[in-house]
Amino acid sequence: MPAPLQLDDRLSIEELAQVARDRRSVELSAAARERIARGREVTERLLAHGEHVYGLTTGVGALKRVRVGQAEQPGFNRLLLLSHRTGTGPPVAEEVVRAAMLAQLAGFARGRSGVRLQLAELLGAALNAGLSPRVRTVGSLGQSDLGPLADLAEGLTGEGDWGAELERLGLEPWRPIDKEGLAFVNSNAFTLGWTALALADVPALLDRFDEAAALTFEGMLGNVEALDPAVADARSVPGIPEAVDRMRALLEGGALLAGGLSRDLQDPLTMRVVPQTHSAARIALDHCRSIVEAELVASHDNPSISPDGRALSNGNFDSVPYGITVDYLRLALAHVATASCERANKLVHSGFSGLPTGLRDDEATSEDGLAIVAYGASAATAELRLLAQPATLEMSTTSTAEGIEDRVIPTTVAARRLAEMAGLARYVAATELYLAAQAVDLRDRRDELGHGTRRVYDLVRAHAPRRRPGEPPVADLGPLEAALRG
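^ that's the sequence the OP posted. Answer follows.
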């Protein structure tokens, strides 16, 4: 078990995944604890002086003009949490809940929410103890995850059936006081946690598409001129030279890259444009990662408690800055998967592969071979493209809270769709790999493969054996998909 994650002023996507999926423990750094304590001192001072502060000495939303006195604070904050439990749909996976809890804690560590150190410590202890409240899928408008975070708060407060669970875990229930109710729900932790968790799977997924394309080059005897370094030099756009290098590294040591085996002068576009298409996805991923990792340790709270003693009304909860990068990445991933699906369809077409249709062992047989396998990839890719449509284009509403809350940006949908797309894309990659391996077998080229493509071929065959005459295709590529994820 790795050492506890020290939360301070940075949090990587990989670290979040370790906590969410592998149950790595987490603890606040001394600097983070000091920032939280200072922010709390400011909040208490503002309350004691009777300052006019939204959500602290006033109601929220349309009730922003209603004063909230000191004696009302416990009841006001408790009811604020309970009244925001308006989500719907099935509960999200436990790993998503844990990711949201960590993102919330990282936001508190910024020291701008004005919550007590006690609340941050409870959140960390609940995460380490394995508390996983039921958080419903739908309920965020993208301008703070009000509904989902109210569900999460229910578990910490011990409301409903959660009191017994807290007692079992040895945790004291949270009793929210001044500003803590608003600070807890006025955050993007649910969406950010889910986004980061989905992003954690994308780098390996893009590696798999590189490998699938390279194995298709081997099986199709593709023209490797498209992968020549001089091609990248001619168009020195960021990402393309690196994509060419990755493809050549997979083919290195094999007969195809050595030259003289290519069948056609002009391969289909989805083979020739692998470096260009795959580089676009890598660039989108890098951009998205950099923004999301910055957001993970940011405070999205309104009002924001500044170190100089002010409570500032602001729009830091706006999810557009990272939401549009998720939309961008999903679009790029759809292009990569679509090209992979097209290559899969070319592999089972004799006019492109030069092999019997359906990658059969014998052209004369009436057996379908593996032709039907491409249908599954086509279905998955069609759904994947539908999921790639932009999700963050706002749907304006002027009715909520007297027209003040006039933006709806469903970035949560973008995060959820990225996770769904990654699952579908992994199946598409597995399909291309399975078909490319069959093409390699029919050409009896296993011993001629590059160092990288040989490794990939052996992985495929460990989970999806070669189809022989009289046999159906592998009915379930799930084991191969699982291996590709690992």
